[in-house]
Structure formats: structure tokens, C-alpha cells
């Protein structure tokens, strides 16, 4: 490893992420139904040009799927293609260490907002029966932004999964991202009240169906648990640098109306 190995998250980074997942101060509840809650963090404004960072946190109490299975679901890229309703493309590109990889993901946004993509470094840790996966945006010369997609920035996004029993767990998703662009308020609201709960339900269902699916698809192969099984090429972390928000162009989409709603009202 080169001197730039520091791009890999430290133990402190994982601890800090966990702390944010469990924090309640400054978080406002936007959705609460049955076993699911969604919060957004109240932004702290520091002048007019403060960053438009959206911080959203979803928590689900899962009664019928183990923490280990939910962890596998989040990692399994092949499986994701079968259940993720928003995915356009997803690929793991290279390994950076036994518990980190570099990948690409693009997703559908509510019309007429342009679709987004990210390139991220993803890292994971299993410790004291707690499962944590975190990712953040990085830059690589071979994966520049594309003209038909808006390159979003994940400042810190991830999952914290903790067993509450042999077949039950608490599942928390937290995203701190700059979607790039002045998004209209309805997108932010729709994200917390409609889209996030919908995705969480898909993830839960994916967890319920995973053991049967995995039986049919290389049941022994789980490179996230057994790094020696990985077929990805190794990449020197020095090839990557942190993607800062301000180096990407902003797209003003604030005047866009929700396509769904304009159809409903016309």
C-alpha cells in the first residue's frame, strides 16, 4: 500500500458513523409507520452559500430476517439487480483492501429531475455483532462524470445493522449526500416521505427472499465475508482521491415540477 492508504476509513470513521446512526438531536421525524421511521437532519445554515447537503436517516425494525442476512443483501451486487427498483447500473470495479472496494452506481430520479450517478469507495466492518458498511464519493480519471447523468456526491452514506434476536434486527440507513443542483423542495420531501420508505420496504423484502435466491446462486461465494474469494482486480488507493462537491458543476432543477403531480392535476 502506498502512502495514500489514509483514504481508507479509520476505526474512528466507523464509530462516528455509528454515533450518527443512533443520534436523535437535530433530527426531525418525517415519517413513522409500523416498524419504519424516516428522519432528516435540520441543516445548520452558515451564510447564504452553505452547502445543500441532505442528510436522511431511515430505521427499520425487522422481525423476520437476521442481521447477517441483511448484511449479505446489501453487499450482494448480483442480487441487487433483482430487487433494487431505482437502479440503472451498478458495478464493482476493484478491490482496495480486504474490506474495501471501488464501484459505480447510477439510479433513476423522479421525473423530470435528471438521473444521478456516483463513484464511491465502500468499506465495511463487522465487530461485536454489529455490521457497518459506509461509502463516500471518490474520483478516478477513468470514471469521469457523464453528460447524460448528474454526478452526485456521497459525503458519507451507509448502513448500521444490529441483531435484536437470532432472526430479527435493527436496520439503519443513513445518507449524507449532495445531489448536486438546486433541487426543488418537493424532491426532498418526496425522498423522505415516499421514496425512502419504498426503498426500505424493497430492502426488507429482498432480505426475506435472499436465502432462497442465494441457494441457487453460488451459495458458498460471499467475498465480503471471505476476501480470498474476490475476483476483482486490486487497486492502489493512491489512484483515488476524495470527490469534493465544489469541483462538480451544479445543475439548477429548482423550477422542475413533479411529473407525477402535474399528470394528476392536468
From TrEMBL:
Q: Which Pfam families match?
A: START
Q: Which InterPro entries does this entry report, sorted A to Z?
A: STARD10_START (IPR041951), START-like_dom_sf (IPR023393), START_lipid-bd_dom (IPR002913), START_lipid_transfer (IPR051213)
GO function terms (MF aspect):
lipid binding
Ranges for the START domain?
25-212
Region annotated Disordered, chain positions? 235-266
GO terms, biological process: lipid transport
- Acetylation as UniProt keyword: yes
SUPFAM superfamilies hit by this protein: Bet v1-like (SSF55961)
Key words of the record? Acetylation, Cell projection, Cilium, Cytoplasm, Flagellum, Lipid transport, Lipid-binding, Membrane, Phosphoprotein, Transport
Give the record's GO CC terms.
cytosol; membrane; motile cilium
Tell me if Ion transport is a UniProt keyword of this record.
Answer: no
Predominant location category: other
SMART domains on file? START
What subcellular compartments does it reside in? Cell projection, Cilium, Flagellum; Cytoplasm; Membrane
This protein's name:
START domain-containing protein 10
Q: Which organism is it from?
A: Cyprinodon variegatus
